[in-house]
Predict the 3D structure of the following.
Amino acid sequence: MSNLAKKTERKALKVLANTLRFFEGTAKLDMTATDAFKAREAENILKGIIEANGFTANYEKGKGTTLTKQKNRYYENELF
């Protein structure tokens, strides 16, 4: 269970970003339409959490996953 806070830690976002690379492999596997839809939905939810906090996740084989801060945008979870 997670601890509720006003702002999501970068470490938590990194953990979520690390899971995104596993969704890429499902495109080459046989899945029912329902399961494929739910897998894509889960991937989009994780990406949405990362992007709502002002980051994008990029995975490169051999280099791992990196979080990049988006510039010049207003984010849902930032305090003003």
